[in-house]
């Protein structure tokens, strides 16, 4: 479900929260989109279109946001952002350490002018430490967190799974969590604070189970030979006869029994489930059986069981899959683009994402500045000073 009204936005969980998101790469836009999906009024503060185009990065996570084009390198632009922050609840800042301070927009100054401001700093390495001013990407943050060393197949080098873990989970989602926590605390104290969201630490925190379960023996074998990293035959992905795949996660004995039954095998004639030395041979046996039927045939066998066997779906298939359709897990915007519905689902104040297209750079510059108390004369002066930009310049300016 999407296509919210103004009234719906106000009644959502984050209705009335004003957020300024300084345009950046993938993690910060996800953070802003999460807040927007749950009702926050998110303004993406873009660089002027020429500078934005030169960066080569478009924001595909701008659902529910509006765009204000502002040149922060010009004193007039930086002063405008300071003024905007006086009326905002949250600032999401994705730059490397020291950038905002050089612009005269550091947290000390902005919090002095607005003590209720939540100043969220989302970076790869954090605000302190050896790499605070260094460039990096998801794979680098994964590497430093220790998580990358755990990812990969037996006898192969570590493998980074797209850029989901550090950028989006450890970065965007963790930063959004920090913002909501800070907003909750502000309701008691009336005071804002600075959030230092490091993607290295965010993804490390996500891996707490790995750290805390090492003593249980779950990760005692080399990479790719353990229970949950591809070593076990009952926690693996198998190819079907039509070139598709089935995901198997039959860890517990009661589920494993149903897996074995569905495969047409006799449990009494097989090695013990947790006999590690037999795992390689069992994987070969399972693979040869899965290769004998199509994905649809395996679904018909396992769908009514608790064998923990499911099809590996493409994006297109996931959006049309019966279970997902029953839950309306995917939504379609006004342009016909399909994407995941915001999660989790709240019973009383659920997210109602916008169906509108994502904003053009500078599309809402005038209306945003007016909302934040700028006069039309001040807006015209900012335009003449080349500190702001409009997608469609109004005649009265």
From TrEMBL:
It catalyses: a (2S)-2-methylacyl-CoA = a (2R)-2-methylacyl-CoA; (2R,6)-dimethylheptanoyl-CoA = (2S,6)-dimethylheptanoyl-CoA; (25R)-3alpha,7alpha,12alpha-trihydroxy-5beta-cholestan-26-oyl-CoA = (25S)-3alpha,7alpha,12alpha-trihydroxy-5beta-cholestan-26-oyl-CoA. Pathway: Lipid metabolism; bile acid biosynthesis. PANTHER family: ALPHA-METHYLACYL-COA RACEMASE (PTHR48228:SF5), SUCCINYL-COA--D-CITRAMALATE COA-TRANSFERASE (PTHR48228). GO terms for cellular component: mitochondrion. InterPro entries: CoA-transferase_III (IPR050509), CoA-Trfase_fam_III (IPR003673), CoA-Trfase_III_dom3_sf (IPR044855), CoA-Trfase_III_dom_1_sf (IPR023606). This is Alpha-methylacyl-CoA racemase. One of its GO terms (biological process) is bile acid metabolic process. It is an enzyme of class 5 (isomerase). Its EC number is 5.1.99.4. One of its GO terms (molecular function) is alpha-methylacyl-CoA racemase activity. It comes from Sylvietta virens. The chain crosses the membrane at residues 164-184. The keyword Isomerase applies. Belongs to the CoA-transferase III family.
């Amino acid at each position: 479900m999407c296509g919210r009204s103004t009234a719906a936005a106000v009644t959502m969980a984050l209705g009335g929260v004003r957020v300024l998101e300084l345009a950046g790469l993938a993690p910060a836009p996800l953070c802003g989109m999460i807040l927007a999906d749950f009702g926050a009024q998110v303004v993406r503060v873009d660089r002027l279109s020429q500078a934005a185009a030169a960066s080569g990065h478009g924001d595909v996570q701008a659902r529910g946001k509006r765009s204000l084009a502002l040149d922060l390198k010009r004193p007039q632009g930086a002063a405008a952002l300071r003024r905007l922050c006086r009326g905002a609840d949250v600032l999401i800042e994705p730059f490397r350490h020291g950038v905002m301070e050089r612009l005269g927009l550091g947290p000390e100054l902005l919090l002095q002018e607005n003590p209720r401001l939540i100043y969220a700093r989302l970076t790869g390495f954090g605000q302190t430490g050896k790499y605070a001013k260094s460039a990096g990407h998801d794979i680098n943050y994964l590497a430093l967190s220790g998580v990358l060393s755990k990812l990969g197949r037996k006898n192969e080098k570590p493998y980074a799974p797209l850029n989901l873990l550090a950028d989006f989970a450890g970065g965007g989602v963790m930063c959004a969590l920090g913002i909501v926590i800070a907003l909750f605390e502000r309701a008691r104290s009336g005071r804002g604070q600075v959030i230092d969201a490091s993607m290295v630490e965010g993804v490390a925190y996500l891996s707490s189970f790995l750290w805390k379960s090492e003593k249980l023996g779950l990760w005692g074998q080399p990479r790719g030979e353990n229970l949950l990293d591809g070593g076990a035959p009952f926690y693996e992905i198998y190819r079907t006869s039509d070139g598709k795949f089935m995901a198997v996660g039959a860890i517990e004995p009661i589920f494993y029994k149903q897996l074995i039954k569905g495969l047409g095998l006799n449990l009494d004639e097989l090695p013990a489930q947790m006999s590690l030395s037999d795992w390689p041979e069992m994987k070969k046996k399972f693979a040869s059986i899965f290769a004998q039927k199509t994905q649809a045939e395996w679904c018909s066998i396992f769908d009514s069981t608790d064998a923990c066997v499911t099809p590996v779906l493409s994006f297109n298939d996931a959006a049309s899959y019966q279970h997902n359709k029953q839950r309306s897990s995917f939504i379609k915007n006004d342009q016909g683009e399909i994407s995941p519905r915001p999660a989790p689902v709240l019973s009383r104040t659920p997210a109602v994402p916008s169906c509108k297209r994502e904003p053009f750079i500078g599309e809402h510059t005038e209306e945003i500045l007016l909302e934040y108390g700028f006069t039309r004369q001040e807006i015209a002066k900012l335009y003449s000073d080349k500190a702001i930009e409009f997608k469609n310049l109004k005649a009265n300016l």
